[in-house]
Amino acid sequence: MSGDDINWLRGAVTLVSFVAFLALVRMTWARKRQPEHEAAAELPFADEQGDRRE
Asked: Where are the bilayer-spanning segments (predicted)?
């Protein structure tokens, strides 16, 4: 492999990684996942059933 080939490969891998990152961000913050995010946001305030001391 010559120097130009390896640089082209590095650029291609960077581009593919960036596109995959953007796809992951878009999938994570999609509006259809809003109920899941709201439920997860309430978890710190939920009472724990198994940790009650009497």
From this structure: 6-25
Instruction: Report the predicted TM-score, pTM, of the whole model to 2 decimal places.
Output: 0.63
Any idea how long the chain is? 54
Residues 1-54: tens digit of each pLDDT:
777 899 999 999 999 999 999 999 999 999 999 999 999 999 999 887 655 555
What range does the domain containing 30 cover?
Answer: 21-45
Buried b (16+ CB within 10 A) or exposed e, 24-47: eeeeeeeeeeeeeeeeeeeeeeee
Q: Is residue 34 part of a domain?
A: yes
DSSP SS3 for 1: coil
Residue at 6 is within a domain: no
